[in-house]
Amino acid sequence: MPRRFSLPYFHNNCNIDYACTDRAMRILLSNDDGYFSPGIEHLAHVLSEVAEIVVVAPERDYSGASNSLTLDRPLSLRRGSNGFYHVNGTPTDCVHLAVTGVLDTLPDMVVSGINLGANMGDDTIYSGTVAAATEGFLLGIPSLAISLCSKTFGHLNTAGRVARELVDTLIARRPAEPMLLNVNIPDIPYEMLQGRAITRLGKRHKAEGMVATVTPRNETVYWVGAAGQAEDAEEGTDFYAVASHQVSITPLQIDLTHTAQLPLLRGWLDQ
Questions:
Q1: How far apart, in Å, are the Cα atoms of 231 and each of 184, 228, 271?
Q2: Residue 149 in contact with residue 117, Cβ under 8 Å?
Q3: Are strands 230-232 and 203-204 parallel, antiparallel or unpaired?
Q4: Which residues are CB-contacts of 266 (< 8 A; sequence separation ≥ 6)?
Q5: What is the pairing mode between strands 211-214 and 247-251?
């Protein structure tokens, strides 16, 4: 099996000034909706104008997979009829496999999406879309998670255009250290966007309870209840920005330490 993959029709030679380097920018695309999703197909098409694209995504929908890795079985990598590579594993598996297992050179960027549905506030803990980008970030690669706040991909062109602009900015600015950006885009025409907002994560109310149902075999099964509505959606949050028809851009970090509680716990030990 070849060690490095690229999609043969994805690269325009030096259509933009900053792309004219010794080699093309390389971007790894993944998602949690699956390699067949219209979101990742559109993203690949849009970003192919500025970079060489490699797509490695789950073979099925892995929404809500969070940062899980598959450790109880081997992973398989296959190429779909659309030219995208798919893995029988999670979004995190896909990025980890691509970067550490099959690509000869490190991608310059990882972009996850375009996700069908918002990933704001507490969603980021569960999101496979954010997880794919997080894995890229943990591997030292600038990474974006792109989500369209919709249930229908109504204005996919808006999300694609915003994604292209953000990638252009990252290429031009070349930040000194990798960034992990969570991007949520209102499902409206591009011309109706009210700009971009740098935001913090908001917070949802507690999720609704499990929904029980009975199968034809008289077995009780349970569906996870709907996510809670926004609780902290004040100005400055991702919820507020999207509700205001702005693109929400939230820089994320991995350190989960509750630093404010460190003195309290140290005090317990001193007693």
A1: 18, 8, 38
A2: yes
A3: antiparallel
A4: none
A5: unpaired
Q: Does this model's pTM top 0.85?
A: yes
Asked if residues 195 and 189 have their Cβ atoms less than 8 Å apart, the reply is no
Contact 227, 204 (CB under 8 A): yes
CATH number of 17-203+231-270: 3.40.1210.10
Question: What does the domain layout of the chain look like in residue ranges?
Answer: 17-203+231-270
Q: What are the pLDDT digits (tens) for 257-267?
A: 999 999 999 99
C-alpha–C-alpha distance, residues 199 and 235, integer Å: 9
The pLDDT tens digits for 133-188 are 999 999 999 999 999 999 888 899 999 999 999 999 999 988 889 999 999 999 99
Q: Could you count the other beta carbons within 10 Å of the beta carbon of residue 106?
A: 13
Q: Are 33 and 15 in contact (CB under 8 A)?
A: no
Instruction: Specify burial of residue 204 (Cβ count, 10 A radius: 0-12, 13-18, 19+).
Output: middle
User: Strand, coil or helix: what is 50?
Assistant: coil
Beta-carbon contacts of residue 120 (< 8 Å; ≥ 6 apart): 149, 184, 201, 202, 230, 237, 238, 239, 242, 248
